[in-house]
Write a structure and sequence with these properties.
- With about 500 residues, the chain is of the alpha/beta class.
- The chain is built from 17 helices and 18 strands.
- The chain has helices spanning about 40-50, 85-105, 115-135, 150-160, 175-180, 185-190, 200-215, 230-235, 265-270, 275-285, 305-320, 340-360, 380-390, 405-410, 440-455, 455-475, 475-490; strands at about 10-20, 20-25, 30-35, 55-60, 70, 75-80, 135-145, 165, 195-200, 220, 225-230, 250-260, 295-300, 330-335, 370-375, 390-395, 420, 435.
- It has a 10-stranded mixed beta sheet with strand order 5-6-4-1-7-8-9-12-11-10, with helices on both faces. The protein has a 6-stranded parallel beta sheet with strand order 15-14-13-16-17-18, with helices on both faces.
- Helix 3 (about 115-135) packs across helix 4, helix 6 (about 185-190) crosses helix 7 and helix 10 crosses helix 13 (about 380-390).
- The protein is globular.
- It starts with 10 loop residues before the first strand and ends in a 10-residue tail after the last helix.
- Residues about 1-5, about 235-240 and about 240-245 have low confidence and may be disordered.
- GO terms for molecular function: alpha,alpha-trehalose-phosphate synthase (UDP-forming) activity; trehalose-phosphatase activity.
- Belongs to the glycosyltransferase 20 family.
- It comes from Frondihabitans australicus.
């Protein structure tokens, strides 16, 4: 009840994402406990947060949890509550059973429900209101990902003084697919409330611009989009635009382009140099019966990742006799994800059936074919796995970026190891020295796996060196710095401090 009277603290830099960078858990005594969950985004933004006294607005991951803002390891946390029904309609429904499959090339059929859309609008408004209430005059607000596409416009209407950025972590689909969405115009308008809209790949940015041109009729001159505005809004943000592009209307110029995300590359590399983690990597290989080749897959258990395609290829190589279980083991980590969404339950059943069949047919008493793990692991264990793996297999059918590919490369300070990478992952735009594959082409996927197994060390090193240069030069700190630079150029005067 007191919360109505509390004057909120305000901040000059505010990040808004569906999930907070902290996990909410219960301790031994059943008391609420917050655990820092150091994802890539947190690592990148932490220094910026500290330099600017920033705040993070998001959901704590549990239904019906009302908590006041608090501080966690130097980050100001502003929780947004969701009811159980909102979790079902906004998060599991509209975000992960409508937008997620639609934006990933309809690999699974998207479901369109009006009540889900209504919940999405309502929850986006709550995030926008919360962000507005903690932003100081002229603050920079950075909204993250597909769960919150309406927030930029809502926020601009509430607070025209703010500079607003949006970054889409997943693909933006081609017009022919995006057009299915019954609320397509509202989503585009929602995003265009931002000053800068960031995408993973150049193709995502051009898919977006094309949708804006065709569905809203706004003029686009890559990388800009001219959004018509009422005179009173325009006067708040007088961005000069060449008059021939105005065609008699006042416009607000929005920048839409690619800012490929990355990882804390040095952080991963440092862990890989830790002798304890290297010992763990040897232990993992021994535990597998020391096969000649360890092939690794690491994914959230998601139908976009092509896990079945990779198992099909590996199973056929065993069936054809081109490989035996003494030659090669496939280790598949599939971390549990969105377990109440039906498409994810079905996928889990299919994958576990496949693993059981392949192991039943080919495993021996001393060697397994597929070592399957339905778990998430701490970063240290992941680094040990990457070190233990001769071949990293990334076969996504569609993926915004795929950070697993970059993590594997960052860890391989020995310059060894082969990355097989789907051309449908955003990372393929940068990681050209990987063995690129079309995961739908099973024959070629099988040949590529054999090529990786047989590749001479000299060639492995040449490729890995080139990959490492890319990943070490372009880390997540550089990503956030370049996005925030673009954002501060939109409205000179609204600068946010660089860390350090
Ligand atoms: C993808 C999305 C993120 C999301 C993550 C985990 O990477 O781009 O926005 O947080 O998956 O999914 P979850 O539904 O558990 O948040």
């Amino acid at each position: 009840a007191d919360s109505d009277h509390i004057q909120h603290e305000t901040y000059g830099f505010v990040v808004v994402s569906n999930r907070l960078p902290v996990d909410h858990t219960l301790d031994e005594n059943g008391e609420l406990k917050w655990e820092h969950s150091p994802g890539g985004l947190v690592t990148a933004l932490e220094p910026v947060m500290r330099a600017n006294d920033g705040a993070w607005v998001g959901w704590a991951g549990q239904p019906d949890l009302e908590v006041e803002p608090f501080e966690n390891e130097g980050i100001n946390i502003v929780p947004v509550p969701l009811s159980a029904e909102e979790v079902q309609r906004y998060y599991e429904g509209f975000s992960n059973d409508t937008l997620w499959p639609l934006y990933h090339d309809v690999i699974s059929a998207p479901t369109y429900h009006r009540v889900w859309w209504e919940a999405y609008v309502k929850v986006n408004r709550r995030f926008a209101e919360r962000a507005a209430s903690v932003s100081e005059q002229g603050a920079v607000v950075w909204v993250q990902d597909y769960q919150l596409q309406l927030v930029p416009k809502m926020l601009r209407e509430l607070r025209p003084d703010l500079t607003i950025g949006f970054f889409n972590h997943i693909p933006f689909p081609p017009l022919g697919i995006f057009s299915q969405l019954p609320w397509r115009e509202s989503v585009l308008e929602g995003l265009l409330g931002a000053d800068v809209i960031g995408f993973q790949r150049a193709d995502d940015a051009s898919n977006f611009s094309r949708s804006v041109r065709h569905l809203l009729g706004y003029a686009t001159t890559r990388p800009y989009i001219d959004v018509p505005v009422d005179d009173d809004t325009a006067s708040v943000s007088p961005v000069p635009v060449p008059s021939h592009e105005r065609r008699g209307r006042r416009v607000r110029r929005v920048l839409a382009k690619q800012f490929p995300i990355s990882i804390d590359s040095r952080g991963y590399e440092e862990l890989a140099r830790d002798p304890a983690i290297q010992a763990r990597a040897r232990e993992i290989r021994e535990g597998l019966g020391n096969p000649k080749t360890v092939i690794l897959g690491v994914d959230r258990l998601d139908y976009t990742k092509g896990i079945r395609h990779r198992m099909k290829a590996f199973g056929e190589l065993l069936a054809d006799g081109r490989l035996s279980v003494e030659d090669a083991t496939l280790v598949q980590v599939a971390s549990p994800s969105r377990e109440r969404v039906e498409a994810y339950m079905d996928l889990r059943d299919e994958i576990e059936l496949t693993v059981g069949r392949i192991n039943g047919d080919y495993a021996t008493m001393s060697h397994t074919a597929i070592s399957y793990h339905h778990h998430g692991y701490p970063r240290e264990e992941m680094v040990a796995l990457y070190l233990a793996a001769d071949i990293m297999l990334v076969t996504a059918l569609r993926d915004g970026m795929n950070l697993v590919a970059k993590e594997y490369v960052a860890v391989r300070h020995d310059n060894d190891g082969v990355l097989i990478l789907s051309e449908f992952a955003g990372a393929a735009d940068e990681l050209r020295s990987a063995l690129l594959v079309n995961p739908h082409d099973i024959a070629s996927l099988k040949n590529t796996i054999m090529r990786a197994i047989e590749m001479p060390r000299r060639d492995r090193v040449t490729r890995m060196r080139a990959l490492r240069r890319r990943v070490l030069d372009n880390d997540v700190a550089k990503w956030s710095a370049s996005f925030l630079r673009a954002l501060s150029e939109v409205r000179p005067g609204h600068r946010i401090a660089a860390p350090g």
